[in-house]
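In response to a reviewer's request, we include the raw inputs and outputs for one of the modeled complexes. The two entities were modeled together in a single run.
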Amino acid sequence: MQKKFDRGLERTRWLAGITVFAVLGLVGMLANPYVISLMTIVLLFTFLGQSWNLMLGIGGQLSIGHALFVGLGAYSVGVLYVKYGISPWVGLLTGMILAGSVGASIAWLSFRFEVRGIYFALLTIAAAEFARIMFSGWEFVGAMQGLFFPAPTGGIEISMLRGDARFYYFVALALAALGIIGTEFISRSYLGYVWRAMRDDESAARALGVRTFQHKILVISISAATAAAGGGVLALVQGSIFPDSIMGMGLSVDVLIGPVVGGLGTTFGPLVGSLAAIPLNHLMSALGDSLRIPGLNNITYGVVLISVVWFLPDGIWPAIVRLCKAIQAPPTALLWQSRKVEE
Amino acid sequence: MLSLWLNVLASGILLGLVYGLIALGLTIIFGVMRVVNFAHGEMVVFGVYVGYWTVRLWNVPIIVAAAIAAVVMFVFGYLLEALIVKRFVNRPHHYQFIVFIGLSLLFSGALLVAFGPDPRPTASQLSFQTVSLGLVTLDLARLQAAATAGLLIALLGAYLKFSSFGRSLRAAADNRLGGLIVGLNIPRVYAVTFGIGAACAGVAGALISPLFDAQPYLAVDFTLLAFVTVIVGGLGSFGGALLGGLVIGVAEAIAALMFTPSMKTALPYALLIIILVFRPRGFFGAKEI
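The model returned the following structure tokens for the whole complex.
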């Protein structure tokens, strides 16, 4: 009974996923420029959220310095394209390799000496802030004045990854879809099971023969490399790179808001969370600007974060799933569930 | 040349004492409650604004402003713990971290709403006075801030060591369950601890208000600075916070003298990375996370 029920749920999941992306595709074709640009950011942060989620939600390592990897990706694309005219595809690849190795070396350094938990989180902040200050003082990459991409000529060039806002919307949509499929794939693979075991109890996983040291390095470098890919596209979309906005604490916080609000460790959480949080943030900063109250968006984000952890600790998406299950499940399955709770 | 170096060293040590007080607030909260207060910098900035407004409205000496900041921030910290933080004390670390990131966004937003983004210099006569001691010339504001911070650190240390509340606080830090068994009022101990931590940050903020312009955006820097200081010394260690503060203060001063100003802000992080790599628990921290 339970198995049949799960299969039904599985089908619903696929249907829901395809419907969501069909709707998002339609949005890209029909919506006005404001919605397009807002949704591009939402989708990019969905992807970045997936990358962060892989690290904490599945790998169990808290990073509050994800801006470092995002920034490395952005700068790789920016420097290669603006200074040498090399295609952003190469930049993306370079950025992923660079960020992946930086992530791996941070992980190697810290886990070698058993730096874990909060100390690891603080180490990621320290690395990100150090890099931000270094990049702010580095003349070659534009220092504080930033790096500007030439204005798009209008045509769509896939080989140079240049185009109009709608083009970037679909690039972001493809990235988000790739992120979701990738997360789903990873969490069902051997690695996903190993990483979740490691997240839940590292000593137990190690006792069962999991090489946790190597696996932690692997999960962090994959997360870092994907964050860099997102960062590269983010830089192209924004058309400029400033160290404070692409490597600052603010970006690290923006990255984690989506998955936290949507649901840690879930596949659709980052999408749901970004869809809820980013438009809210834009609305609040627009409201704050028109009322001349700066900081309104900060207050909203703060209240949202606190109340999500307070009232919905596993996020919005699991709550939706619970609701759907309650509606969909046949009475026997409900009975089964309630018996399980009693046990 | 010698006099220049001595001056830089002295001003580094003086500022380091104030950093030590800020870090002490963070380390007490962590040591007792195992909670990392990510909104610590905002509390320092609250203190800076208390200093700014009291000096501006009533033209009182900085010491009085610091006392007011201590009371205000103690009550603030106590209420914050009793109303919000206590619900998250037993949650996993990353949830706590996210709650505190939320609190820090909330507070910095509130500061922006209340005071706007523009920096406000505390126009105190103190900012321009100096004292000469042989080769070394010190500015009075810094000297006063450091002396007060040093005195407070000593007093707080003595209080925690000898008073009955200090004993229960240390007991709660050592073993929460054991404290509950012998009848400690743990919720109250936690709330008071958070109050003390917030008060340390607030006093430090008020003390440095003649040196820094009051500005909401300072908060992030202070939070990160407090983290660096505490980790260099060892999270949860009293002496470590003080030592960490001095190390960071001196390192910053020397870096500003030897390299470019941007190196001054980068150096603490570089130091932190080196320390975490070679001595993950800091100079004195030995406690397991």
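As requested, we also summarize the result in words. Chain B is about 75% helix and 5% strand. Chain B has a mean pLDDT of 83.
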